[in-house]
Amino acid sequence: MLVPHKVCFRMSTLLVVFSLPMFAGFSQESVGSHTSSSGDAHNVSPCLLFEITLHGFLLWASLGLLMPLGVLVIRMSNRGERGIRLKIYFRAHAILQMLSVLLATAGAIMSIKNFSNSFNNHHQRIGLVLYGIIWLQALVGFLRPVRGSKGRSPWFFGHWTLGTAVSLLGVINIYSGLLAYSKKTSRSIRLWVILFTVEVSFISFFYLLQDKWEHIQKQGVILGNEPSRPI
């Protein structure tokens, strides 16, 4: 029987995968100084173009790559790993998440310093919420109770909830950021949307496969005196 948090995360993961085409058409509104009127879409200075591109790259590396990899790594430690391998998985998870927080913080500083933030659109509002949740998640991670203590279960649920929120909102905001970039520069984002969609689909598939891999391997093995059945 699946525990509730596993069921919820699987549903969330499937929601991301099957909602990708919808996100491709998400939010055509302007995004602060990233998107002004369509008439000046071509009047982007090389310096501003570099800053927008670097901001997008930092947030993709943080929320679109390192954060999901950190989730996959810690999931691998849940398959009965013990001793040195468990420590390796945990440290890899911590390093990936800390790097993700640092890159997201650098992207936030760039946004505050170089862009006009009126927070009148989805991209900036979601981004603001994400920055807060990311740092809250980092703080919660450092304050984890000892395994087996009474506070461990509620802590784990809170940590998982925040992580799920960051993963879902991060994917949505990367798509909306690509659309903002396209509107500001009039450049095609088709290739980047396709590549990111493939990446998210692969990570989601690998996440879902982790739970089933052991079961798949056991399909060709008869356990004990269990008779072979055609099911």
From TrEMBL:
Keywords: Electron transport, Heme, Iron, Membrane, Metal-binding, Transmembrane, Transmembrane helix, Transport. GO terms for molecular function: heme binding; metal ion binding; transmembrane monodehydroascorbate reductase activity. The keyword NADP does not apply. Its main location: membrane. It holds the Pfam family Cytochrom_B561. This is Cytochrome b561 domain-containing protein At4g18260-like. It is found in: Membrane. It is a multi-pass membrane protein. It comes from the Eukaryota. The chain crosses the membrane at residues 57-76, 88-112, 124-143, 155-177, 189-209. Residues 11-217 form the Cytochrome b561 domain. InterPro entries: CYB561D1/2 (IPR045150), Cyt_b561/ferric_Rdtase_TM (IPR006593). Its cofactor is heme b.
